[in-house]
Amino acid sequence: MYYKHFYHLVIGMLVCSLFACKPDEPKTDTTNTTNTTETPEDSEEKPEPPEDPEDPSTRRDYDFLFDLNAVPEVEIKVSEAEWNTYLTNFDRNPNNSKYVWASFTFRKGDLIYTRDSVGLRPRGNTSRIRPEGESGQPHSNDAQWRHAHFGIKFTEAESGQRFFGVDRLILKWFRNDPTYVHEIYCYDLFRRFGVWSAPRASYCRLTIQIEGDDHPVYMGVYELLENPRKGWLDARYHDGKIPDKDGFLWKAQWGANLSDGSTSLMGVADDEGNGFIYTLKTHKSRLGEAQNELSDFINGMTPQPSGSDELKNWLEEHMDIDLFLRAYAVNVMVGMWDDYWCNQNNYYFYFDANHRFYFIPFDYDNTLGTGSEGMGNPGTKDPLNWGPLDGSRMLMRKVMSIAEYRQRYINYMHELAASDELFAPNGSAARIQYWQAMIMPYVDNDTGKDCVIEDKPSEWSSYQTYRLLTGEVGDGKTKESNFFKTKIHYLPPQE
Predict the structure, then answer these.
(1) Helices 182-192 & 425-439, crossing angle to 10 degrees?
(2) 264 or 143: whose pLDDT is higher?
(3) CB-based contact 201:187 (threshold 8 Å)
(4) How far is 57 from 52, CA to CA, in rounded Å?
(5) In 10 A of CB 38, how many CB atoms?
(6) What is the pLDDT of residues 273-330, one digit of tens each?
(7) Is the Cβ–Cβ distance between 120 and 151 less than 8 Å?
(8) Which end of the chain is more exposed for a tag (fewer CB within 10 A), N or C?
(9) pLDDT at 47
């Protein structure tokens, strides 16, 4: 089963760079199963580790790690005992966040970098899947494998550890995305448009090796995604985007409407996956302080008179308003309905030490024409009424009540639409075709699923005729409809 993929490795070696780095042999530690979701370093800020001149992976190099011109290999090696613990944890509670020990190897051409002891855990909200066999079954050398999302934590064994600047990565399969481009396109567009808070993302080829098996399992093309944590803070602080990295980073899940400042909605998740609508991700020992800051932000914004100079001054003082407007222009252009404004879901945010709010978009798989009737047509829906503008989405209500901000938001969407380097149909299609051609030799995989790239939305989408590479202006239902052209056609006019 593995040998049919040998030519994949040969192609990858030819198209990547030719510099060599010999790693140490992986030594998976099976003496301790890390059944905890967090280590002490998650509670208190630690200094960045020094760079090792002999090991380039200790340096911050996001352009090397998240390279959209390459498809590097990622190998996860796990002992059978640790893997069975992973499966047992999943069977007992699929939402668990418990880590097991693994080794992580990253190959890009002749360059090879290994971390011998990393944490490995399941990822996803409604998309968590047991990657092997059926419930209750231990690992088998001939089991049926399935695509699943995985989380990698480089700091599990050594506090402060980084891998090319990140402390955590998400390995995400292209679930409900026959095009293999939804999140890749969206995160790249955020970056092109100056939304520096968005995670970085790129492609990789994932292999899982259970020690003692006859051969590894090739899982196919995966997304390599930055997980907003300490590494995110390090990188944005280093780039001068935030004034410090000592503030509080939060993850917002369904119901996070920034309208209710009750501290009961805010907390720290446990390793069984029990979280809060607002889950604190940094400085967890200072939860009370973090709760008060978030509550003060919501409760301080709410009474400001909509459309007033007082509100405008308050917003300018308490958040990066241009970052938010740019993020939302991209968000609505790519048709992201499972978001803050429409579905009160899927974002992070950071408060710096001066209590200033920064918006972090996240989870962009349900985009580019994939949508449901209940949330509206992602191509034709009015961008000025993408979600509620009443008190149920207080931040958006207040921001959009300022005429200057509303017009800037419209202008940003038109700026995106006009440029082939951004959202314009020809340029978007060219980038998508380039990425699809690059990954096409590697999509066939040992799960037997998702082995073909197709230009169509998810099979569950209510809008089955949206296309990214063909079609004209339409509605995604009655005829073949190009999503980019349709979205641009339905933009509100500029004043």
Answers:
(1) 130
(2) 264
(3) yes
(4) 8
(5) 18
(6) 898 999 999 999 999 999 999 999 999 999 999 999 999 999 999 999 999 999 999 9
(7) yes
(8) C
(9) 61
Mean pLDDT value across the chain: 91
Q: What average pLDDT score do residues 264-276 get?
A: 94
Sorted by where each begins, the domain ranges of the chain are 3-172+198-234
Q: pTM here?
A: 0.90
pLDDT tens-digit series, residues 349-374: 999 999 999 999 999 999 999 999 99
Instruction: Kindly give, in sequence order, each residue whose CB lies less than 8 Å from that of residue 98, ignoring residues fewer than 6 positions away.
Output: 34, 35, 36, 37, 89, 121, 271
Angstrom distance (rounded) from CA 486 to CA 255:
30
Q: 205 has which bridge partners?
A: 73, 221
SS (H, E, C) the chain: CCHHHHHHHHHHHHHCCCCCECCCCCCCCCCCCCCCCCCHHHCCCCCCCCCECCEHHHCCCHHHHCCCCCCCEEEEEECHHHHHHHHHHHHHCCCCCCCEEEEEEEEECCEEEEEEEEEEEECCCCCCCCCECCCCCCCCCCCCECCCCEEEECCCCCCCCCECCECEEEEECCCCCCCCCHHHHHHHHHHHCCCCCCCCEEEEEEEEEECCCCCCEEEEEEEEEECCCHHHHHHHHHCCCCCCCCCEEEEECCCCCCCCCCHHHEECCCCCCCCCCEEECCCHHHHHHHHHHHHHHHHHHCCCCCCCHHHHHHHHHHECHHHHHHHHHHHHHCCCCCCHHHHCCCEEEEECCCCCEEEEECCCCCCCCCCCHHHCCCCCCCHHHCCCCCHHHHHHHHHHCCHHHHHHHHHHHHHHHHCCCCCCHHHHHHHHHHHHHHHHHHCCCCCCCCCCCCCCCCCCCCCCCEECCCCECCCCCCCCEEHHHHHHHCCCCCC
Tokens of 105: 């190897």
The 10 Å Cβ neighbour count of residue 436 is: 18
Could you tell me the two tokens for 234? Answer: 């390090």
- Whether the per-residue pLDDT at 125 is higher than 90: the answer is no
Express each pLDDT in 45-79 by its tens digit: 556 667 777 789 999 999 999 999 999 999 999 99
Residue keyed to tokens 């200057």: 404
Q: Beta partners for 23?
A: none
What average pLDDT does the segment 266-274 reach?
Answer: 94
Distance, in Å, from the CA atom of 303 to the CA atom of 188, rounded to the nearest integer, reads: 37
